[in-house]
Amino acid sequence: MTNRLTALSVALMAGASLHAVDVDQAQGGLVIGNDTAKDSYKSVHVGLANKQIDQGWARSEDAVLQGGGTIRQWGLGLSAEAAMAVAPDRGAAELDDTDPTTYQSRPIDPGEIVQLNVKVDYVLEIEGIYGENQPFLQLIPHFEYVTYPNQQGNDLKDHQLWAGADTWWSTPLEGVDIGGGVDWNLGGPGFRGAFGGREFFQFAPYDLQFWQLANFGDQSYRSYFVDTDKRGWTTSQLGAKVMIPTAWREWWTTVKTDWTYWLKGDDQDYRKAMGLDRGDFTFSVGLQWIAE
Question: 6-290 in CATH: which number?
């Protein structure tokens, strides 16, 4: 089979970054072991989600419009993702409106940009180990800037400059990958990482993807999000995505779900004291264009 699965030709889904590790397979990388591999990739997407979650915490508890895109040539890629509130979120209205001290500490009005991610990466892929030009290993060093434009005075707003690398190994089991990644925050103290698996299946005309991640961080990273002086696990994530071809060439309908759950009892108690659940469930539908 010259193409591993049709699902592997699709890299991005409507939605700003939820993961410390990108669960979609990067396309347009520098490929070793396949002289016919495509060396470019372009994609644009837009979608509607029930809420915006980043690194285990809600940026907005109500509906958001998500969008962005990626362009990559000879391995070097540039991606941008944004989320804009389309419904008001008054869940934290009792807190200070101008001097926030927590992750979500002010009311959100429609039209506010609640999150912006910009990433530069380089994708190196090795193929041919299993024969038929199938992917074997991906190495992805990257730099990502994350900010929350609608917030004021928040330590997280302008101090997330993440530099690191992801690695994905395509196992001999068709469509099953194992991998992970680590990031260091150049804008302040903090180290984070994740590892897990992702699976790709095709049931024509549907392309399906699933993922399972376990996230962790050092003491400095965890102190940004939970009131703790311990390093270790933060959240687990389970997700699924389906892509459905439309009547228009190069256009896809996308549906995605993601469930985030805080693993440590102390973290769960901290969130409970704030009136929050132990985890969050997100659901989004969107439309995506991918250049052939």
Answer: 2.40.160.40
